[in-house]
Amino acid sequence: MLAGLRRYDHRLTRRIAAWDHPWIRTALPTAQDAAEHTLLWWGAAAAVAATGGRRGRVAAGAGLAAMGLAEVLSNTVGKQLVERRRPPKEWIPNEEVEDRPTSSSFPSGHTAAAVAFAATVAVVSPRAGALCAPAALAVALGRVHSGAHYPSDIAAGGLIGLAATALVLTGRHRATRRWR
């Protein structure tokens, strides 16, 4: 069964990396560049906090907390537990194949951060979350398209992001109840 999943993961990687529509060749690398060092999410947090009133400030703060937790879980814990090579360069027909990280492929820290931020913001402020979700999806797909990750790395990063969201929101809820 694991061999079958691995073959499917490899086939899907090749298929996504081969997407050649001009919009995809522009949008996915742009989203990835913006997400480097979590700049996209810091900018989104500033915008949500500035325009969303009290709810926006809470959403931005919770989103940044979840993003930070997801990064720790994926990059500090996950990548140390699972060493996985990046997809072979021969599978990636675009020029971004040279810009790949050298760390473990599993899990995707970019995806974990993106999902954690977008999901947390969406729970606190659904409108703001709806604006963040497409960017998070573009970051995740861009990681496969550029050859940095396999789809299973993205799925694991997404699960870590959702776990970080649950932990931050649960902690926030408990802290709020305690102060009342």
From TrEMBL:
Q: How does it sit in the membrane?
A: Multi-pass membrane protein
Q: Per the record's keyword annotation, is Membrane included, yes or no?
A: yes
The name of this protein is: Phosphatase PAP2 family protein
Q: What region holds the Phosphatidic acid phosphatase type 2/haloperoxidase domain? A: 62-169
Coiled-coil segments: none
Q: Which residues cross the membrane?
A: 113-142, 154-171
What cellular-component terms does GO give this entry? plasma membrane
